[in-house]
Known about the structure:
Elements: E1 2-7, H1 14-24, E2 26-32, H2 41-44, E3 49-52, E4 60-65, E5 69-70, E6 74-75, E7 79-86, E8 89-97, H3 108-128, E9 133-138, H4 146-149
Parallel strand pairs: 1-2, 8-9
Antiparallel strand pairs: 2-4, 3-4, 5-7, 6-7, 7-8
Amino acid sequence: MKLLFWNLNKKDNADLALSCMHEEKVGIAAFGEFSGTEFSDELLKGSGYRPMGYGGCDKVKIIAQESIEVLDCFEESRFAVLPMKIGKICFIVAAAHLVDRMSSADPEPRLVDIRKMMDVIHGYENALSINKTIVMGDLNANPYDKELLLPQRI
């Protein structure tokens, strides 16, 4: 299954995004900075894709193939965690768009979100006996930054 994360930069590229998803046969897509982009019911109708989640995440929108079953959903302002199922295969997808360095040079806000997201992921992994987890998005951190290396990190 192919995954896509796309920072839409508040541009209305819903048609382009959906076209790309079809062309590349993307199973699950997460979009950051999606405000201003309308994945309307009319656009998605008959596309084979549907929105995932309840709309409680301000920074990430997840669209997936209709054949993918969502087992549960946890949403915060900056991330969403969804245990999913295709056939008999269960997995977790977490998508995030964390605070950028221009808004906060301090890594602490990112670390708080990462810790909470990982707690939710570990909770689902344990409760649902899932050992396949995908984390994607814009973490606004470099691989060796504090927020990715400390305990309870990714």
